[in-house]
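Appendix B, record 7
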Amino acid sequence: MIVGFVLIHVSPVHEREVFRKLREIPEVVELHYLFGPYDLIAKIEASDYERLSEIVVEKIRRIDGILYTSTLRGLKFY
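Structure tokens (predicted):
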């Protein structure tokens, strides 16, 4: 299992709408507000790095109000 932590910078006043849309993505298993240069952090679980990239590029970055993201990739150990 692959995990990704996506740091998300959101356009002002769009935080709640972006948060709501991110919660609709099944692969987003955790979502938190942040204070600092990023507004949200989303934890994603995927089968492999290719699927993780698809989720970030095709689902997350296409949400209106997201200005930019930064993704940290890792492996999930049990």
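Remarks on this record: DSSP finds two helices and four strands in the chain. The first strand starts at residue 2 and ends at 10.
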